[in-house]
Amino acid sequence: MNVLKRRPHRLLRRVLLPVSLGAVLAGGLAVPAFAAPGPIDLNSSSCPANMTGGENDGCVTELQTLLNTHGFRLTVDGDFGNGTLAAVRTFQSETGIAVDGQVGPQTKAELYVSSTSVPDPIDLESSSCPANITGGEVSGCVTELQDLLNAQGAHLSIDGDFGNGTLAAVEAFQSAHKLSVDGQVGTLTKDALYGTSNVTGGAVDLRSASCPANMTQGEVDGCVTALQSLLDAHGASLSVDGGFGPLTFSAVESFQSANGLSVDGQVGPQTKAALYDNVSTSVGAPAPIALNSSSCPANMTEGEIDGCVTSLQSFLNTQGQHLAVDGDFGAHTFAAVEAFQAANSLSVDGQVGPATKAKILYEDGVYHCPSTGCPGQNQAIQPYVVQYAAAMAKQGTMPYVYAGGHGASPGPSVGYCSGTPGTSSAAGYLQDSNGTWYCFASHHVGLDCSGFARLMYYEAAGYDVLGSGATNDQIKLGNQISSSQAVPGDLIFFGTSTSSTDHVGIYAGVVNGVPMMYNAFDTGTNVREEPVSDAQSSDHPNAYYTHYDAYVSISV
């Protein structure tokens, strides 16, 4: 029921979260209206033999999600518009198919390339993967590598084969992250690929008791996250990943030299004190200011340094950029703005004027509401969550897919299978009418239990509240409560302990004396409402009710 595979995700750093304006009724709750129809297998009789522009249905939802697994970044809305057409044509060109923009049998087959012939992904940092992964390797380590690179914006077909395309993507990733560009995937590249997955928490004030008196190379934690942000605020250009590697060490030495400190690369009391000079927040960036505030210029341009830029950079990172959030509108931020403008059919000038702001305010719930507030402001998020969950369960078409919903952004995705079919370790498999096991997950778009919970909280908040982790990651973000304290929209985790969970559902309240929940239960089922007791067994006997202190709010 739960995917335990680690995936890169951003750390939750906000407490007050907004609801999307388009999902708000005046004076009421969010409307549980999903823009995208439920996905339909492209090879089913429900889908046209040749799909063309203008189609609007669940077949297009499936098509868009499949294209996104191949590295595209389409809005999954079920509408075969110009953006989807362009992605289809690009995909056909990249895979050697005749470029006509139509999705026929050959294109469909290539879209479903992630099949049982693809090696199951293996954690790059496990002993099963080489210390240095190089071109020519064919294994589950490469499957994982390609998946991670696609989450960073590559356009790779996931086949487990380290060919020229994967090599080029590795080199591009290394260049973007200021690593040695050799095309080999060693320790530093692996660490960068997993990003914040290696960090155990958010940024921690260096002066707190939680951080070592002397921080040294090799440390990986929230203290290093804060250190890197502070160094960037003083002019460095580090990727904020929480890992104290050689580049961070060099940046510390440069900072010490520039500030008349003893140059040893260690971050002790004197270096910490100097780092906090002339910065406005504990993580080194000016405090964020909503882009629609009168405090932000009508046209933001390169060279600006303030909280408006902090907000801009945070938003651009939700769109797949990898900017240091330092409040400084430099060359990298300029390039990211241009990329966002190009992707959204805006005039590409690198300036953040009214048209660009309008698109940002529409896309990102953090800045969605006007400064006067929006309906539901400061209400708890749970009622919105349960409204969306009820709508999906009523729709009844979203399948459980093992590992579904754990991509770079929330939403249904193609999964994969693990373990041996027919055994207790198996996940993602089903039997056909002849009793033969096949990998259902790698041929369908859907959600597993934690992917479902993630999407519902995202739909309600307009922000990835739970992140791309599994149940053991999600449970850590909330507060344990008793069942009597639970309200509809809270999460219920199942397992043998709070550190060993394997399923999660969204509490729906008590119906006719029976506690109910919405959940994606297991392969062969769709998202549904059912009694809480149905998920309890000898394998996961305990139910842990969990509340998230998240509210509908805005930054003004």
What attributes characterize this protein structure?
556 residues; alpha+beta; Muramoyl-pentapeptide Carboxypeptidase, domain 1; two-stranded parallel sheet; 15 helices; globular
Written overview of the protein:
Among the domains are: 43-111, Muramoyl-pentapeptide Carboxypeptidase, domain 1; 204-282, PGBD-like superfamily/PGBD (Muramoyl-pentapeptide Carboxypeptidase, domain 1, Orthogonal Bundle), CATH 1.10.101.10; 307-367, Muramoyl-pentapeptide Carboxypeptidase, domain 1 (Orthogonal Bundle), CATH 1.10.101.10; 382-552, endopeptidase fold (from Nostoc punctiforme) (Alpha-Beta Complex), CATH 3.90.1720.10. 29% of the residues lie in helices and 9% in strands. It has 15 helices and 12 strands. It has helices spanning 58-69, 82-94, 105-111, 140-151, 164-176, 187-194, 222-233, 246-258, 269-275, 307-318, 331-343, 354-363, 382-395, 449-461, 471-474, and strands at 16-17, 413-414, 429-431, 437-439, 445-446, 479-481, 491-497, 500-511, 514-519, 528-531, 542-547, 551-552. Strands 6-11-7-8-9-10 form a 6-stranded antiparallel β-sheet. The chain has a two-stranded parallel ribbon with strand order 1-12. Helix 13 packs across helix 14 (449-461). 48% of the residues are buried. The model is unreliable at 3-34, 196-201, 362-377 and 552-556 (pLDDT under 50).
